[in-house]
């Protein structure tokens, strides 16, 4: 089958042929029709693979279930699904892909595959960050409290703004450094936008916010930590989806009894935690909210068919750090729209 990968320390993406995998246990064998790219793809590519080994990336996919393992109970062949997969396994930049059913849901019925492919990884990350790590009630128990989203126009920021504003009823303040990215954040539900290249606490005060109750940091924790510590309210909570590169002055949170917590959506699948099924449940809820018109896709650019050249362009765009929303690719050169004739579920 066709796939896109790189070998060893050479991060050059290439069109390759690999053996088709077989579904066993809780695995679904999915025929992939659309994918999106995330910063984890570029980081993993730069990290390389063991010498002589081929690595296939890609942790956002929409496809049709072709076969199921003997322990599968949630899905059957012919269903269209979406998911982000597991970083400890090969990714979905391949025609056929194995994924554990417990981190998969049926795709939104109102979106075409490329639009749906933009959602899984960022939706899981934002959902877990807001509702599990920051312990925000998604039914509005903290309605009116403030959330600062650093990096509002990125993939995670784009869905977090919607979840926080439309479900939890928070007042969302997003950061963006360009006019077009600020407009994107406002369109998604941000009440205010500040420039993360400037003095964030001063800009918040100019808007009338001495402090904020919650902070979600989606990029460059080292650079923004001092501003976060200054802006955070007493007993406030901070969640970062990126790790620090240098020691953080966490003592700055001590006087405020501040909470700092990390979110990595691959934790459940990497450690095979007992609650892995929660990602299936939350993706199913995201699909329902999309179909009801509460949430919208965050796709902003389609780079064409799934092949090495287009995927390399998508990686380069991410590395420029100027993308808005999500980049997707859809269909394979030899079979660009297999789902049209296959899937009516």
Automatic annotation (TrEMBL):
**Which GO terms label this protein's molecular function in UniProt?**
oxidoreductase activity; zinc ion binding
Q: In what residue span(s) does the Enoyl reductase (ER) domain sit?
A: 11-329
Q: Among its keywords, does the record have Zinc?
A: yes
Keywords, in A-Z order: Metal-binding, Oxidoreductase, Zinc
Kindly give the Pfam families that the UniProt entry links to this protein: ADH_N, ADH_zinc_N_2
Which SUPFAM superfamilies does this chain map to? GroES-like (SSF50129), NAD(P)-binding Rossmann-fold domains (SSF51735)
The text of the family note is: Belongs to the zinc-containing alcohol dehydrogenase family. Quinone oxidoreductase subfamily.
Protein name, entry field: Zinc-type alcohol dehydrogenase-like protein
Q: Can you name the source organism?
A: Zemynaea arenosa
